[in-house]
Amino acid sequence: NGGSEHQRSIRGSSLFNRHSKFTPRIHTHHAMTTIQAVFSSSHIRTLSQKNTGVGRSGMVRKGGARATASRRPTMKKVVPIVRAAAAANNEDNNEDVQGDMLEPSLANNPLVRVASLVAVTAVSAKVGGVLLSAKLLAFVHMMGFGMWFGTLGWTSTVFGIVAFRNLPRQTFGKLQSKLFPKYFAVTGAMPLLLIGTLYSLGGGAPSMHEIKLLAIAAGTALANIAVAEPRATEVMFERYALENVAGSERDEARISALKKTFGKWHGISSLLNLVNLVCAVGHAFFLAGGLA
Q1: pLDDT tens digits for 4-29?
Q2: Partners of 54 in the beta sheet?
Q3: What would the DSSP string read from start to end of 246-276?
């Protein structure tokens, strides 16, 4: 568009080529297009006129060389522009990002983790001469309890609260819809495992008080995974779909009704989860008696 020689000099300048030193590297086509748009022909033309001292008439203004040095675009001016462009582009294209965040390492493979735990347990039991003994069963019982109580405690008192306070509401709901089926599966399976180990350790006559406590815990998780959680999730997604409708087509009355229905099922699910947690604490007290 005229003045192309000076445009090439700006594009080839050390400032333009070293933008990666002061801005995050962006590897998406859309992000680079957005950043390059900052240095569009109109913007470059303006810089060209300011820096060279050439006006629209083509006449050279006095002090052109000095103006070039004093008015050259600085990092302080360019960095905010590039960062704003990248941030705006990330917001627009974040949902379209595909592919794994990284290549999983061998240590992150679930099968490798399980095999490692089994191997360490077997070797330890054999070295200690307690293979298939009461001590090994007690070890399995303690590990199962740790998994049960740890999952309940972390999800209910740490993760859930932090995620709720820091994620957009719909994003939080979508995350929980993926987490809860696995969460209730773990908090239901572990009490059943503990019932089995208690029967073995007790010679077929374990403490019925603890058996009942563990059975109640497993029952609450089963009720959550089979009834409360699926129903709450179904209502939640229906509400999200209506909330995302633009303009006057939104059915506010239906959204309000779904909000109440979701609150009911969410309350039931939370109550069941609380009972499960109370049972876990009760069983911890039972185990503490052995230490005492």
Answers
A1: 454 444 444 444 444 444 444 444 44
A2: 60
A3: -GGG--HHHHHHHHHHHHHHHHHHHHHHHHH
